[in-house]
Amino acid sequence: MKQDHDDHHAHDPGFGHDLRFMLGRRRFLALTGGLGALMVAGGPAAALDCVALPWETAGPYPADGSNAKAGQVVNALTQDGVIRQDLRTSFGGLTPVADGLQLDLEVTLVDADGCTPLAGHAIYVWHCDPVGQYSLYDVVEANYLRGVGVADADGRLGFTTIFPGCYDGRWPHVHFEVFESIEKAVSGDASLLTAQMALPEAECAALYAADGRYANGVANLGRISIASDNVFGDNSAEEIAQQTLALSGDPSSGYVGTITIAIDRNAERSAAGPGMPPMGEGPGPMPGTEGAPKPPPGS
User: Which UniProt keywords apply (predicted)?
Assistant: First the structure.
């Protein structure tokens, strides 16, 4: 579960205020309809499965303005360049690039009531690198593997990123927050849904065994199951099926992952959930949660 944080986002008012001028029609189209090369052909959203996803914790590494590191609020959402399609690079003046096997995410946002497309809605996604490290927290000089996209008329959008690693204590996953618009995403408004995508076990096991960049993935995956995971473990089979990426590809050429995110606007939102530190505090170790100490790279 995740706390609503309207009053806790620290942001630069100028970015949100000037967003419509910075983005412009051409860039908006490039980030939505222009992603056609990434999107697979398919039927209308109404033909898709629409099991509403449950609210989950954002974990201690959201960089959405809801917590701090070393006394400084961490907020990637107010940085110029966060609205993008390729998440492998850093942005806003930072330069590191994430290593790892390419993963193309194809996302469809729908309202669970009627399975109708959520055109113009925005999604912020973030996840760890191959050895379980998060930018801005573990890798402070980078902000890669984070970004915001906006859905086209069919509720579709896409990102190019890397396949997440598996760190000790958590099932492989991708975090996300969905907002009514780009403006709400960058201005500190509460999300419509905060949840996580799960990665399927077979593809994770195959990649971690084949690719040395995911050095600790085999051992960590062997110590966890999706049923014992402290985020996914209490979800129904239908919810887990809905929030698990459908993958095509292989450990050599990379993967394409598709998912439909169905949002229940009336879903109960808990004040806080496991793995989410108190507002204004850093992501200190929280044994048994997503904040638990992670093994160093290569372990």
Answer: Membrane, Transmembrane, Transmembrane helix
Express each pLDDT in 164-211 by its tens digit.
999 999 999 999 999 999 999 998 889 999 999 999 999 999 999 999
CA-angle at 132, arms to 151 and 168, nearest 5°: 120
Q: And the tokens for 90?
A: 């850093």
Give the other-Cβ count within 10 Å of 99's Cβ.
Answer: 12
User: Is residue 282 over pLDDT 90?
Assistant: no
Q: Any idea where the domains of the chain sit in the sequence?
A: 13-263
Nearest to 95 by CA among 163, 146, 160, 144: 144
Cα separation, 189 vs 233, whole angstroms: 29
**CA 34/CA 32 separation, integer angstroms:** 5
Average pLDDT score over residue span 65-70: 92
Tens of pLDDT along 222-267? 999 999 999 999 999 999 999 999 999 999 999 999 999 999 998 8
Concatenated DSSP letters of 249-273: EETTTEEEEEEEEEE-TT----S--
Burial class (CB in 10 A: 0-12, 13-18, 19+), 213: middle
* Assigned CATH for 13-263: 2.60.130.10
- Cα torsion 157, 200, 215, 135: sign: positive
More confident residue, 19 or 229: 229
